[in-house]
Inverse folding.
């Protein structure tokens, strides 16, 4: 079965986020002076072949922990869903 | 006999030749090691020089840590071998878990390329052995992600054990506790953001980097003799 995964990586609470801070400083000039607490991060999308959704999630989490995020400074959040129904025809 | 130093080159490393030249100036026999090489026998010390290993994609050092040479570097370090990471090399060593903490984007999202003054704060490392703590050196930095961070417990450990080996006199990047360089518990693995190889000729404004590299080369010979 094929699953599509999305991993969101962001800096942990307490780690300075100069990108988010720089974006936030620019906002009033654009009229967004009602926006607060900007945090920059990044997101990765990929597909995983696995027996079931739990298996796909485990692989995606493993990839997130080993490579996509540096656990010293970053948290990651994994979302997994099935891409197409099993045996689906076109 | 002169120390044999391997200078590890990843795709995107760009300070390897300066590093070799500076090491030769302090009497070492330095040679390049390609990142797919897994045999490091015959070296007394290793240097991971500056640059952009694997393009710094994802995070500086994140891909380099999976290069075949890194397993051998870890074994070399575990056996007490001297390993020095300069700038990008420091980032690789933290990503590989050979040094604690991480290097994040500079305060203010500012790339810094400037001479800096650093102070030797501990002589308990291969890079600072024999150098009087308090000694100030002028060595340039050149980085975007050089702000050192670690959790409070790690910071306390580093301070208490004299593992903060270099501090900035004026912090250029927002590094916690003004940290410019740290060492492993045994002092044989050291990472620093300033570039000692770029302070190795009076023509470029400072020769203070040679003091650090000479200490490393001396330590490497001593390790071999032991």
């Amino acid at each position: 079965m094929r699953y599509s995964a999305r991993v969101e990586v962001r800096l942990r609470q307490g780690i300075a986020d100069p990108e988010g801070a720089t974006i936030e400083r620019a906002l009033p000039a654009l009229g967004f002076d009602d926006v607060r607490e900007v945090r920059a991060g990044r997101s990765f999308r990929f597909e995983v072949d696995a027996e079931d959704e739990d298996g796909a999630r485990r692989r995606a989490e493993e990839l997130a922990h080993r490579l996509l995020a540096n656990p010293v400074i970053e948290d990651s959040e994994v979302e997994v869903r099935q891409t197409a129904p099993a045996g689906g025809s076109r | 006999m002169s120390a044999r130093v391997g200078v590890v080159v990843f795709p995107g490393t760009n300070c390897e030749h300066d590093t070799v030249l500076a090491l030769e100036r302090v009497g070492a026999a330095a040679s390049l090691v390609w990142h797919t090489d897994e045999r490091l026998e015959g070296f007394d010390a290793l240097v991971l020089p500056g640059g952009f290993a694997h393009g710094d994609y994802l995070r500086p050092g994140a891909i380099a840590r999976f290069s075949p040479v890194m397993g051998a570097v870890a074994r070399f370090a575990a056996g007490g071998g001297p390993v020095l990471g300069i700038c990008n090399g420091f980032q690789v060593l933290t990503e590989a878990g050979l040094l604690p903490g991480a290097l994040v984007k500079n305060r203010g999202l500012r790339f810094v390329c400037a001479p800096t003054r650093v102070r030797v704060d501990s002589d308990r490392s291969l890079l600072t052995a024999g150098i009087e703590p308090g000694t100030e050196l002028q060595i340039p930095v050149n980085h975007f992600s050089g702000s050192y961070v670690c959790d409070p417990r790690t910071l306390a450990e580093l301070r208490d054990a004299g593992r903060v080996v270099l501090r900035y006199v004026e912090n250029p990047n927002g590094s916690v506790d003004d940290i410019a360089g740290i060492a492993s518990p045994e002092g044989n693995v050291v990472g620093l953001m300033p570039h000692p190889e770029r302070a190795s000729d009076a023509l470029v404004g400072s020769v203070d980097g040679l003091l650090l590299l000479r200490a490393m080369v001396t330590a490497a010979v001593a390790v071999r003799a032991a």
The helical segments of chain A are 18-26, 53-68.
